[in-house]
Amino acid sequence: xxxxxxxxxxxxxxxxxxxxxxxxxxxxxxxxxxxxxxxxxxxxxxxxxxxxxxxxxxxxxxxxxxxxxxxxxxxxxxxxxxxxxxxxxxxxxxxxxxxxxxxxxxxxxxxxxxxxxxxxxxxxxxxxxxxxxxxxxxxxxxxxxxxxxxxxxxxxxxxxxxxxxxxxxxxxxxxxxxxxxxxxxxxxxxxxxxxxxxxxxxxxxxxxxxxxxxxxxxxxxxxxxxxxxxxxxxxxxxxxxxxxxxxxxxxxxxxxxxxxxxxxxxxxxx
Length: 270
Description:
By secondary structure, the chain is of the alpha/beta class.
């Protein structure tokens, strides 16, 4: 478990966000899922997370961003939205990318707390309770880390190298930057803005959270084999897009702040 301490002024926002809990009331909660070609898993995830949220609050919503799915994901979600009053669905006209789906979700979440994970079923949404248990009054976000990655050996190896490289390159304290099982206080996204449209957004988030001084705790979560579809990550076009995105945020968040002011301004104009 790792705790990152932040600035004093965050305490005021925490008190305001948690005053309902202090009075014995329950905070409101958004469960958000980015989805792309997840027709086999998304309905079960939506129904299960709703059951789990009812155990902790009556004030909740489920939000799904369909990022231009080519299968029946969109149709399934529309059917569910007509049946389930707590479900909201946002459709991207095209596949804009994982980061774009996250940005849409974070901007449209309405409740005090935001939980998100992927719509492909590789995480168990019932473990949401493990994150909620760690969201103490002095914590801004809870990040999961995979106890054991349930993927092919080469993905496990590449994933481990990627995490180490990101921690070193971006000077991150986070243990598992690509574990998409997270719980935030909504005011975080009133303080920072996100730009990356690809999976690079996870690195961007982690770095901006640390730069802003938000306080984080990490908890172990389970990871399961992908039963349907395949990851888009290892396609050449996607890898090139990812590398360009990493280079951009590395320059913006790591290199540029260390340059003299006149050099930073010149670099932005070029």
